[in-house]
Structures are given as structure tokens and as C-alpha cells.
Amino acid sequence: MFTKIHEYLPADYFLGGGNLQVAYSTAIERQEGVLFMGYKSRLGLLMLLDSVIVTTAIFIASWVVYPYTDVVSMDAIIISAVALLIFHHVFAYIFKLYNKVWAYASVGELIAIVQAVTFSVLGATIVQYLANDFSIYRRALLVTWMLHIIFIGGSRFVWRVVRDRYIKDNHEHKRTLIVGAGAAGAMIARQLRDQSKETELQPVAFVDDDLTKQRMQLYNIPVQGKVRDIPEVVGDMHIEHIVIAIPSLRNGQLKKIVDFCNQTNAKVQMIPKIEDLMTGKVTVSSLKNVEVEDLLGREPVQLDIRAISKYVSEQTVMVTGAGGSIGSEICRQVMKFSPSKIILVGHGEFSIYTIDMELRGKYRDAGIEIVPVIGDVQDRDRMFEIMETYKPRIVYHAAAHKHVPLMEQNPHEAVKNNIIGTKNVAEAADTFGIHTFVLVSTDKAVNPTNVMGATKRIAEMVIQDLAVRSKTKFTAVRFGNVLGSRGSVIPLFKKQIANGGPVTVTDPEMTRYFMTIPEASRLVIQAGTLAKGGEIFVLDMGEPVKIVDLAKNLIKLSGYTEAEIPIQFSGIRPGEKMYEELLGEDEVHSEAVYEKIYVGKTSAVDQDVIRGIMNTFENYTRKDLKDALMQIVYMEHDYVTVKGS
After folding, report:
1. What angle do CA 550, 557, 326 make, to 5 degrees?
2. CATH no. for residue 528?
3. pLDDT of residue 456
4. pLDDT, the chain, mean
């Protein structure tokens, strides 16, 4: 559409002084068939039309004010008509009445008309005063002013009415239901109506639970019922598209609405939630598909902005695993608090390059030094070199192997990355006097039944041991599954749906805790501000979610039924649990030390045992290595809570 837009721009635009916005809008209309003539032809037609309107207004005004009399001579009328005609064209040019795209006229265009007409009539009045007996004709000029506005405005706005009601677009509109008849819903409805040529959505009805809005109309669009009436309204009015326009939805409200929408075959979209709507303005372009993340029904975390800013601002921050799902999001969140420098550490060059380019593009003028560093946490010398070179104040250690079945098959790699890698980075932090070290851990570290969980629990033990004898504040943050992260079920389910199914779920009763990537990352940063050393912070993950329910929701949100995309149960894989735990059996659920953050402390484990397995793990078989890891984990008395420590 835009590759040859110059072909539709008025020729005189390129001679200089052209208004690009006006010319561009005009060009778009020409290209889409709204205008059927050249710019000069259109200008000539408008001037001719205005000339007829002005002359007609003068004669009608004279007849209305002085019917059947000859009080006013024809000479006076002609002088007024000529003067008004000249002034009209002058002020129409000044107020750009000939350059506006009237198919999209609104209040701004009406104001321009009133201004142009008012100055035109004032000019004609002065001429009449100088040339004739003004006392005789002044009433006619007042009526002329009113008729002038009515005729000029009517001639312009009639085109908008014709466009809205009678001109058919080149594409079919989708009948659209808007959920929410508040300010956001009204704004979306108006934009969809005004941009009918650019969008395929045609708003035909609202639903809203507010009783005072029932059977009312917004922009001639009726409120047809309540949220629970969505299936009926969709069926009766042949709705193809639903837009949820309530930015302040909380908890299970969105899920309730989506459940009603899922009883239909309509596609569902929504405006961003209020915490994501930073501009304060709702636009059609901001519409997004409803994602599984939106259905968690969790209240947004209220961060202690002052504490985080004091903790991060003007500091050097290092993130390992910076190219991964959690690591990259930690980088994004940290950047919002203006560190002086951020060190992006990772062994995958493409993932580090990607987050580096993203941050540089978004924070180009922020004055933050962004340093991409390629390095493997298993390389002890490299970690010490990086720490010595940049001397960060804060380290977020997110680098880890997290895929349960893969680590069952490759336990030696899990030990090297999750245990030895953590030990390398942590001891480098201790050696160079880093202020705070935050380990990103997992709920699978509690009563682990798999290699991945066991290695993450031992990684926690490593930093807890260092915390006892180091000036560095070592802490771990433990949380459950993160929606949308690499290796999580969501990308897998989406791929299976795109391939036509089936969607594979291990067991109909399997549950997991879920949290969005941004929320988890924000809480990791917040937990760092609370660290005193040796804690294991546990994030409140809300209620566990059945994996099969997650799959069903994703299938429906993708526009399919379970008949079209079946769910297939594959059985539990080695190392998997039916449900995950965030706290051990001996945990006493204390009050949160911060919103959604709890803290506990485990008993010490002989570090010689841990060092022993790190030195000899390569001699173990796969099965023996897993047994040895489990033996270390279950040596400790798991999880004795110490509030606020």
C-alpha cells in the first residue's frame, strides 16, 4: 500500500510548502478510491461549491430578513455577495478548509469552519459599512453568518455521513462486540468507527454489567446486555470478533469473561491491563490477543520503587544467563532503575547479541553503559576475570540448566552448570567483595525427585555456606514455573496447536505453580533489596494450576475447539512430580517479609561432602550420580523457617 504512495500525492506538494500529513491523507483516500479526481480538480470543485453556497446564503438571508420588500437594493446584495465571496476564499485558504480530509471530519474541522466564516462575514460587514447604509443591512448579515456556517459545514460533513453509511469498503467488516461500555470501550468504539477503512472490525454492540447502561447507546451502538449474555448476543447478532475493553480488570474477572467468550466461536482480543497502559490512552493498535498469562488472575506486584532505586541506581549490575528468559527480563527490569552499567554475561552469542541490541535500542539516550560479555559459568578463570574487570556491586545469577527430562539424561552437565557454575560465580563474587549475590532458584529444589531439582538445591547450599563467612550478601530466590520461558509448556503447546495437535499433557491431575516472567523478575530484584545474607526467599506463586486446564484455555484462545485440537495424555516422565512444593514439610508459613515474598533458612550441610561430589562426579554413572545427589540433599533437615533473617 505504501510502496508507491508518491503516485497519489498532489503534484504541487513536491514544489515546496506542502503539508505532508494532509497530502498523505489525501493520497491514501485517492488510492482507496474515496476521491476520483486530481488535487487541483478537487480544489476547483470545492471553490465552485463554496461560491454557490456563499451567494445562496446572501440571497436567502436577504429574503428571510426583508421578505416581499425592496428595502435593500440589489446593488447592496451584490456588493455583499462579492465581498463575502472574496473574503471566504481568503479565509478558507488561511484556515485550510480546502486541505482537510472531510471524510474524517470532527470537532476540529467544525471550529475551522466557524473561524473562517466569522472572519469572512466581518470582512464583508466592513465593506458593506463603507459602501452602503449599514444600518439597513446588518440584520441580513447576521442571518448570512448563520446560514454560511450551516451550508459550508453541511456540505463538508455530508461526505463523512455518506462514507460511514453508504460507501462500501473493499474488504468485509467483522461484526464486533465490545465488552465494557466505559471510557475505554467508548474510545475503542469511536476509533473503530472513524477508522473503518483501515480496520476490519465494525462495532455493533456492547455488553456491560452496569445496570444504568443497559439499553443505552454509545455512538449509536447499543448496550445489549451483561457479560453473562455474551454467548447469546454473539449468536443473535452474528458476532465474529470480541474486544474486552476493561483495563482495570483484576483477579478472576478476566477469566470469567473469557470463559463466556470461549462458549462462542468469535475471536477474542483485549486492551492492555491498566498497569501496562502507561500512556493513559487506549488505541485500536494496542489491542492484543488474550494470552494464558492474562488468565492467572494475580494482582500486580507493588514494588518498593524507592528501595530498588536506591539499591540499583548508579550501580554496576551483572546478570549471568542474560540471554535466557529470566535473565533477559531481569536486565529489562534493572534498566528501568538507571544503573550506571549493566554486564550481560552468557555463553550463547546470539542470545546475548539479541538482548544487547534490544536494550541499546530502547535506552539509547539513557546514559547507561551496556557491556555484552561471552563467558561460560563453568569456566572458573573466566568468571574471576569478568568479576575483577567490572567489579559489579550486584550479581543476579540466572544461568542454569532447567529442563527436567534433559537433566535426567545428562546429570553430569547439570552438576557442571548448576552446581560448579554457581560455585564459580559465587566465589568470584566473594573474592572481589561484591555487595549482593542473588541466585535464581526453583521450587523443584524442595524435596527434589529429579537431578535438576537436586542440583539447584545443592547450589542453594553452596551460597548459604559462603554467606556464613563472606562480607557479600548471598541469597537465593525460589519460585515455580514461569509462563512463556524457554522450555516451559506454553511454547510447546502453541507449537503443537499450530501443527494441528494433539496437545500432549502428562497427566490430567498434574498441577504446577505459575508466574509471568516480568512478575518473577521484579520479585527477584525486590528480594535482593531485602537480603541480609543466607536467606532463601520464596515467592508467593498463588494457587497451583492444572496443566490440562492450561492446555484447554490455550486451545480455545487460539480459536479452536477440543474436538479440532485434541488433548493426549502421555504419562509422567522420569523425574517429574504430580505437584510441586514451594516449602518443605517443616515450613511454618510465616508472615511475608514483603508483598508476595517469604523467607526461610535451611540447616547447614557438610561442605566437604559437596566438594567431594564436585571433584569426583565425572567418575559416576548416570544412575549413581543421581543417587549421590539425592543423598546430599536429604542429609539436611529440610527447611526450618527463620522469619526476616
Report:
1. 55
2. 3.40.50.720
3. 93
4. 78
Q: Give me the pLDDT at residue 32, please.
A: 38
Extended strands (E) in 157-200: 174-179
Q: Using the 8-state DSSP alphabet, how is residue 418 labeled?
A: I
**Which grid coordinates are listed for 218?**
454509545
Q: Per-residue pLDDT for 279 more than 50?
A: no
3-class DSSP assignment, residue 316: strand
Amino acid at 142: L
How wide is the angle at C-alpha 396 spanned by C-alphas 393 and 402, nearest 5°? 165
144 three-state secondary structure: helix
Residues 417 and 522 in one domain: yes
Region of 472 (left: φ > 0; alpha: ψ -120 to 50; beta: rest) is: beta
- β-strands 267-270, 288-289 pairing: antiparallel
SS3 288: strand
Looking at the structure, tell me whether residues 219 and 316 fall in a common domain: no
Neighbours of 564 (CB within 10 A): 12
**Sequence letter at residue 380:** R
Counted domains in the chain: 3
Q: Is residue 577 part of a domain?
A: no
Across 600-618, average pLDDT:
69
Give me the pLDDT at residue 42, please.
66
Q: Domain for residue 31, yes or no?
A: no
First to last CA, the chain: 62
Distance CA 488, CA 485 (A): 5
Residue burial 209-234, b: 16+ Cβ < 10 Å; e: rest: beeebbeeebeebebbbbbeebeebb
Q: Is 444 a catalytic residue?
A: yes
| Chain segment 359-404, per-residue pLDDT in tens | 999 998 889 999 999 999 999 999 999 999 999 999 999 999 988 8
More confident: 168 or 284: 284
Residues 233 and 368 in one domain: no
Q: Inter-axis angle of helices 107-131 and 74-94, to 10 degrees?
A: 140
Res 392: pLDDT: 96
pLDDT tens profile 89-105: 888 888 877 766 565 55
- Cα separation, 503 vs 518, in Å, equals 26
58 and 144 housed in the same domain:
yes
**Does the residue 432 lie in any domain?**
yes
CA distances from 393 to 8, 322, 345 (A): 58, 17, 15
In whole angstroms, what is the distance from residue 396 CA to residue 373 CA?
15
Per the structure, the complete domain to which residue 533 belongs is given by 305-482+516-540+584-633
Tell me, yes or no, whether 178 and 159 share the same domain.
no
Are 469 and 354 in a shared domain? yes
In a domain, residue 644? The reply is: no
Instruction: List the catalytic residue out of 267, 444, 596, 626.
Output: 444
Q: Which of 263, 290, 317 is the last residue of a domain?
A: 290
Residue 68 confidence (pLDDT) above 60: no
Determine the Cα–Cα distance for residues 578 and 507; give it in Å rounded to an integer.
Answer: 8
Among 165, 194, 220, the domain boundary falls at: 165
- pLDDT score of 72 more than 80: no
286 and 431 assigned to the same domain: no
Give CA 365 to chain center in angstroms.
22
DSSP E strand stretches across 208-262: 217-218, 221-222, 241-244
- Selection from 146-155, 207-216, 454-463 with the highest mean pLDDT: 454-463
Distance CA 99, CA 92 (A): 9
Asked if the bond preceding 502 is cis, omega within 30° of 0, the reply is yes
Q: Are residues 420 and 348 in the same domain?
A: yes
